[in-house]
Design goal:
This protein has one domain. 20% of the residues lie in helices and 41% in strands. It is built from three helices and twelve strands. It has an eight-stranded antiparallel beta barrel with strand order 2-4-5-8-9-10-11-12. Keywords: Signal.
Length: 188
């Protein structure tokens, strides 16, 4: 009797325990499906939101990096919860076509043709910003950077500072990776 109970218990563990190790099965996804939530992680303890703008020109062909945007925690929660936009992400990169005509905007002049790169995956925390995305204009874009929390705090106190707060590398398409130094700006 005791052997039968143990055998039944082991069988139950084998069925339920081993299948739970694999995690829940996911339905198959098409090529255009958003990445799984596990592919993107936001774990910042403070507010990192703002525009991170290059101190030095960063160009790939006709495209120039305008900024890296990091949103607020609520924007990351919405994105990870499945609320997606075709034109806005909680972390994204924007490039300008330097050959496009200039137009007047509410904050000055800007190039008329821009490309936003939305995330396919990211890791944003107190020390790191890792981003991967894709756009029709630029192809695959990867940014991997380290945040300097002291410099960011100083910049936030000064409502923007010329100091470097984020350093990293940027790889666009087949072009070689470039070193990037970014300053923080709160935006309008």
């Amino acid at each position: 009797m005791r052997r039968r109970v143990l055998a039944t218990a082991f069988a139950a563990l084998a069925v339920f325990g081993l299948s739970s190790c694999d995690g829940p099965s996911e339905p198959s996804k098409g090529a255009d499906a958003p990445p799984a939530a596990a592919a993107s992680v936001y774990a910042a303890s403070g507010d990192l939101s703002g525009y991170y703008m290059p101190l030095d020109p960063v160009r790939v062909g006709n495209w120039s990096l305008d900024h890296l945007f990091i949103g607020q925690a609520a924007e990351f929660q919405s994105w990870q919860g499945g609320e997606r936009s075709a034109t806005f992400g909680p972390v994204m990169l924007q490039f300008d076509d330097v050959n496009s005509p200039m137009v007047r905007t509410e904050i000055g002049e800007a190039h008329s043709i821009t490309a936003r790169v939305l995330p396919t995956s990211y890791t944003v925390n107190d020390a790191q910003v890792r981003f991967e995305g894709r756009s029709p204009e630029l192809g695959r874009v990867i940014f991997d950077g380290r945040l300097d929390q002291g410099a960011l705090a100083t910049s936030r106190r000064n409502l923007g500072d010329e100091g470097v707060v984020l350093t990293g590398s940027l790889k666009v398409g087949d072009a070689p990776a470039q070193a990037v130094r970014l300053r923080w700006w709160m935006g309008d």
